[in-house]
Design a protein that fits this description.
By secondary structure, the protein is an alpha/beta fold. It is built from 13 helices and 8 strands. Strand 7, helix 9 and strand 8 form a beta-alpha-beta unit. The chain binds flavin mononucleotide.
């Protein structure tokens, strides 16, 4: 199994509802070394569910791209992986970290952390089904008393996976507390595979620091990349560069989803103008905008200074 050819060391994390094709293109244009789809149900793929299949559409510009699967049955995961391989991604990723009850209480996602031997079987079923490299994204354990990553990682290595991404929290933590980068570094120190460290990176500087101190091959950025694709290349956009980028994102959303894309864009819009001078009123108006034309018009008015106000 080959390691995929990835140029750069800052990777966009998979995020349901955010890392769709338009945003993945934006992230790649700003230097993300690799991108992931959000988690996609292996069962949905095998059943041919239209909405599930739609989640896997990607543009060549997004490469290298990983399609992330979740599931808990080895034969379903293997069949889903075979079908995904035909779509031609660069990597197939297995989700062993999702903490959402609808996923992990049924035994998928982070549910697999509770049984490392079974997690290894799932990974082996997928690596055995495809020629593409397979990666796994894990958390460091189910809860505080079962941080079993040093048991899990060798099982995944034996299963033939090529890469492991580690979010340094337990499932019980969900997104609370802070990511345990000592645990991530411990995995990077013992594993023969490239390790991608993940959790709480808030800036480009943070990313570089984590790379140096953790011994990871790469780091993965999630929440802090929303509204800030510049986190990947370290650039600081001016107000007009920001406005131009948001217009580009709006056009990509419109092209990909049609008019309904404006609703999906609202959560990005709120983040893009976060912390920008004089942007509070613009943000308020943007998150209520109901068409692409209206949003583009608001941004033009922002650039012309129409939203400037002394109290901002
Ligand atoms: C809204 C949201 C959706 C997420 N969806 C996924 C997902 O589909 N697959 C996955 O492996 N992780 C998912 N994650 C977890 C992130 O990939 C990442 O591990 C986590 O947010 C920690 O990184 P960060 O501190 O840089 O955000 C999601 C996180 C958020 C906030």
């Amino acid at each position: 199994m080959d390691t995929p050819d990835i140029a750069g060391r800052l990777i966009l994390a998979p995020m349901a509802g955010f890392t769709d094709s338009p945003y993945r293109r934006i992230a790649r244009r700003h230097g993300a070394a690799m991108v992931y789809t959000e988690l996609v149900s292996a069962e949905g793929i095998v059943r041919g569910n239209r909405k599930t299949l739609d989640l896997m559409r990607f543009h060549p510009e997004e490469r290298p791209i990983a399609i992330q699967l979740f599931g808990k049955e080895a034969d379903v995961m293997a069949e889903a992986a075979r079908r995904v391989e035909r779509l031609g991604p660069d990597l197939i990723d297995i989700n062993m970290g999702c903490s959402a009850p609808r996923v992990c209480s049924g035994g998928s996602g982070a549910g697999l952390l509770q049984n490392p031997a079974f997690a290894g079987e799932i990974a082996a079923a997928v690596t055995g089904a495809v020629r593409l490299p397979v990666s796994v994204k894990i958390r460091i354990g189910w809860d505080e008393s079962t941080k079993n990553y040093l048991e899990l990682v060798p099982r995944l290595e034996d299963a033939g996976v090529s890469l492991i991404a580690v979010h340094g929290r337990t499932r019980a933590q969900k997104y609370t507390g802070s990511a345990d980068w000592e645990a991530i570094a411990a995995i990077a120190a013992v594993s023969k595979l490239p390790i991608i460290g993940n959790g709480d990176i808030r800036s480009h500087r943070d990313a570089l620091d984590r790379l140096t101190t953790s011994g990871c091959a790469a780091v993965m950025i999630g929440r802090a990349a929303v509204g800030n694709p510049w986190i990947f290349n370290g650039a600081a956009p001016t107000a007009s560069e920001l406005a131009e980028e948001v217009r580009t994102h709006l056009r990509l959303m419109s092209g990909f989803y049609g008019e309904r894309g404006i609703v999906l864009m609202r959560k990005h819009l709120a983040r893009y103008f976060h912390g920008f001078r004089n942007a509070a009123r613009l943000r308020g108006a943007l998150v209520r905008s109901s068409s692409f034309d209206e949003a583009i018009d608001l941004i033009g008015r922002f650039e012309n200074g129409e939203f400037d106000s002394p109290e901002d």
